From TrEMBL:
One annotated Gene Ontology cellular component of this protein: BLOC-1 complex
Phylogenetic classification of the source organism: Eukaryota, Metazoa, Chordata, Craniata, Vertebrata
Protein name: Biogenesis of lysosome-related organelles complex 1 subunit 1
Family as reported in the entry's similarity comment: Belongs to the BLOC1S1 family.
Catalysis performed (reactions): L-lysyl-[protein] + acetyl-CoA = N(6)-acetyl-L-lysyl-[protein] + CoA + H(+)
Pfam families noted in UniProt: GCN5L1
Example GO BP: endosomal transport
Protein species of origin: Cirrhinus molitorella (mud carp)
InterPro entries registered for this protein in UniProt: BLOC1S1
Length: 125
C-alpha cells in the first residue's frame, strides 16, 4: 500500500514536472516570438530612418553643389554688371570729351571765320 502511494505520488510529480516543463517551453517560445516581433518592428523603424538619412545626405550634397554653382554664377553676374557700369562711365567720359572738343572746335571755327572775314567795318551813312 505504501509502495503504491509512493508510486502514485511520484507519477503525479512527474506529470507536474512535465506539465511545468511544457509550460516553461511554451513561455520561452512565446517570449521569443514577442521579442522577435518587437525587434522586427524596431528594425523597420530603424531601416526607414536609415533610408531617410541617406536621402537627406544625398539632398544635402545636391544642395551644396547647386549653391556652389549659384555662387559662381552670381559672381559672374556681379562681374558683368561692374564691367557694364564701367563701360557706361567710359561712355559718359567720351561724351563729355566729345562736348569739350565740340566747344573747342566751335571756338576755333568762330575765330577762323573772324580772321577770314576780317574785322567788321562800320558802315558810313
Amino acid at each position: 500500500m505504501l509502495s503504491r502511494l509512493l508510486k502514485e505520488h511520484q507519477a503525479k510529480q512527474n506529470e507536474r514536472k512535465e506539465l511545468q516543463e511544457r509550460r516553461r517551453r511554451e513561455a520561452i517560445a512565446a517570449a521569443t516570438c514577442l521579442t522577435e516581433a518587437l525587434v522586427d518592428h524596431l528594425n523597420v523603424g530603424v531601416a526607414q530612418a536609415y533610408v531617410n538619412q541617406r536621402k537627406l545626405d544625398h539632398e544635402v550634397k545636391t544642395l551644396q553643389v547647386q549653391a556652389t554653382q549659384f555662387a559662381k554664377q552670381t559672381a559672374q553676374w556681379i562681374s558683368m554688371v561692374e564691367n557694364f557700369n564701367q563701360a557706361l562711365k567710359e561712355i559718359g567720359d567720351v561724351e563729355n570729351w566729345a562736348r569739350s572738343i565740340e566747344m573747342d572746335m566751335r571756338t576755333i571755327t568762330t575765330a577762323l571765320e573772324y580772321v577770314h572775314k576780317g574785322p567788321v567795318q562800320p558802315t558810313s551813312s
